[in-house]
Amino acid sequence: METFLTIIGAIIGIAMLVGIYYLLKICLMYILTALFCGVILGLISAFIGSQIAPDYTAVVGIVGAGIGAVLGLLRAIFKTKDIAKMDLAKDVVESMTHTDPNGTVYTVSDQYGNKKKVKKTGNGVLGETYYKDSKGNSYESTYGSNELK
User: Fold this and answer.
1) pLDDT tens, position by position, 26-75
2) DSSP character at residue 117
3) Vertex 105 angle, CA 103 and 108, to 5°
4) Residue 101: which residues within 8 A CB-CB, separation 6 or more?
5) CA 66, CA 35: separation in Å to the nearest integer?
């Protein structure tokens, strides 16, 4: 029973982390869109206000910024589906886990400078990479290491 509850707890924990990730991503995009639109419309309003009524430039700019922030927030709310599908962390993870395809040939050398050609044969679950040379000898390297074992 304890094992079952541990598994259920882990599944719920992972689901909560994914939910929090998307919630934070959507909230961040709401804030950034509102700020961006508010600043742009505020600057435009302040410029127009300085041309029409120079005494009220600051007030016109603040009102324009508020209206721009509300319009930006409404735009972000209507685009929530697109924001949730947008890749933020996915690009980073893909760039970190990008590996060469199987069959790629590398030239490696040992500590004495002897060179040997090895061919990549596969990847392991924990990030290790497997190689073979022309004589059938197998080699392995761990994630983030340039050494063969």
Assistant:
1) 888 889 999 999 999 999 999 999 999 888 888 999 999 999 999 998 88
2) E
3) 140
4) 120
5) 9
d(C-alpha 45, C-alpha 51), whole Å? 10
Give the residue among 33, 36, 113 at the shortest CA–CA distance from 75: 33
Task: Please tell me the pTM assigned to this model.
Answer: 0.48
Structure tokens at 12: 């719920």
For the chain, what's the residue count? 149
- The answer to whether 131 and 121 have CB atoms below 8 angstroms apart is yes
Distance CA 62, CA 40 (A): 11
Q: Which residues of 42-69 are buried (b: 16+ CB within 10 A; e: fewer)?
A: beebbeebeeeeeeebeebbebbbeebb
Q: In whole angstroms, give the CA distance from residue 97 to residue 81.
A: 27
d(CA 37, CA 77): 14
Tokens standing for residue 136: 């059938």
Could you give the CA distance from residue 46 to residue 60 in angstroms, rounded to a whole number? Answer: 6
| Measured distance between the N- and C-terminal CA atoms of the chain, rounded to whole angstroms | 42
